[in-house]
Amino acid sequence: MFRFDNDLTRHTIREGLTIPNGIGWSADQKTLYFTHTTESTIWAYDYDASTGDVSNQRAFWKLDTDGEPDGFVFDSEGNIWQCIYGEGRVLKINTEGQVVGEIKFPTKCITCPVFVGTELWVTSAIAGGDEYAGALFKVDVGIGGVRDFKFKLAKGSAEL
After folding, report:
1. What are 82-109's pLDDT values in tens digits?
2. I need a surface site. Which of 42, 52, 60, 61 has the fewest CB within 10 A?
3. Which parts of the sequence bind a divalent metal cation (predicted)?
4. 99, 96, 59: which is closest to 82 by C-alpha?
């Protein structure tokens, strides 16, 4: 896992990852969250928004079943909505790392969520061969998401 400064200087945060997945920041931009599917863990890091420095890796949440945590998204209250590939469910994880909700889907291949208003839209992979594999699902969960943070690029995109 890497981070880039706005002049495109690359810094290594972590090496040896095999299936890196969801990544996002807390609303106050002080904590970076990252899902490593192979370890069935959402890792948390201290994050300095002014420098981009990342430190103090710690386990925030760990899946204790056979599924695989895939993509996630934050809601406006700071909860993480984590897809569990292989189990057909999305877990709502609060800011303390506790599962406080679950939505089940008719396919095991759930991959990535996104908020559209108060609806949680969830993609699925075509793998698995069941009737709903590859489908897009939407569920009104009564809460919205947050805007994505923007990358501050000093160089023009034509220079990339």
Report:
1. 999 999 999 999 999 999 999 999 999 9
2. 52
3. 21, 70
4. 99
